[in-house]
User: What shape does this take?
Amino acid sequence: MKYLLLLANAPDAWDEPATDGPVADDGVAADWAAYTDALRSAGVLVDGAALHAPSNATSVRVRDGRRLLTDGPFTETKEHLIGYYVIDVADLDTALSWAARVPNVRTGTVEVRPLVAGSEVTAAAGPDRAP
Amino acid sequence: MTPAVPDRLERAYREERAAVLATVARRLGDLALAEDAVQEAFAAAATRWPVDGVPDRPGAWLTTTAWRKALDVRRRESRTYPTDQVLDSPAPAADEVPGSLDDVLALVLACCHPALAADAQVALTLRHVAGLGVREIAAAFLVTEATMAKRLVRARTKLREAAVRFSVPEGVDLVERLAEVHAVVYLIFSEGYLASGDGPAVRLDLCEEAVWLARQVRRLVPEDRESAGLLALVLLQSARSAARSAGGGLVPYAEQDPRQWDAARVDEARAVLATTAGDPPGPYQLQAAIALLHATAAAPDRVDWVRVSRLYAALARLDPSPAVQVNRAVAVGRADGPAAGLALLRPLLDEARLAGWPPLLAAHADLLERARDPGAATAWRRAAAAAPAGPQRENLRRRAGAG
Assistant: This one.
């Protein structure tokens, strides 16, 4: 069973970004590396990445054939997405205990969403019904 | 038709329903399908047993019948789910069904899964563990049947699609999950116990369901002391239901007639609580011990307030919620005098978020009255104005007049 861990934090994590590179929010970089290693050595890591700050986001909509661009993320929320993992584990309880160990969970939120089985697509091949 | 059959069926329904459902649901990993299959199995029993006679082991018959019916549904759906592993799994063996206590515990834990909202946990537990109908549950919670049905569907869908497994964790994980179960059972009890809106002051049915559930939980994990504490607590509180609702109002503890307390339940609670002695008690054991001192006092004005206030002090360390602190202040006010109680209440009265909270205002008025403070009557009136309309407000008004 695959789960998407959506990592979110309050925007003040980006008040003074140290670099223009990928955001490492509140956790020490070593914590993230250790967590990712733990996922990998448990054999449950499928995928994952950090996201640039939401101020770098551009939202796209097409209405009446016209492309509308908005500066910023698609929802105004107290917390913003900072990254994600996809993990493959036996059940929700296992996914929840991995979620409770993500470095940003003590200051932010990790949303756990099950993936629809068989819907994943890759560059190599994928089912027609993919979104 | 044998006259005994409907009785046997009813007994099987209550006693074995949860076990039959648990066995089938755990093997299927699908509560909705399992529930449908179990209902069909009971319907089949209603037609077959009067003709064929009641099977030697009704639970086993019901389980195998439900399992076959569930497999039929899965086979019909197998075009949609071509790789259905359930179809390859063996049928439950006749000598091991209905399921073990472990299966039932797994069902209870799944219904009370922490990934579900409290109203969903409550609905699933009443529907699938206690076996109540959707209409009954909806009526008890004053929502429409459609709303309750939707709530159940949404919760079961989440259990299935997020892959909540029907399993029993070990050690500290089990303790945490049991705490979730205790909270759900106590929520059901409180919903029945507390006057709500303009309905009857005590809704007995939900209280009895909660007592039944607490007995099941205790049976499933006899070594868990908080499960014993919870059972003792709901037994003690329900023992006073009749005295509390005498005359259609809401009779405060101090005015209840102890002869109306259910002595059998008090004795049972005392015995259950005695099995937990010698260990550092958890919050339910402490609350039960407090309730026991109230229920075993010779009269409402002869409660051992010194011991009650000590128990509240221990409870406040585990659960420093405003409700516990207010009750502690009242108990200390009786044990050590109203000044000591008022001193404990003062920090709560200064908290902005508790301003106008009826239990706090009532406790304040009570302690002022005991201290013979001239402000007591005003304080009672303030408490009455803050209380929701109904029997509680009437009681507070009466005190304002007397004070």
Notes: Chain A is about 15% helix and 30% strand.
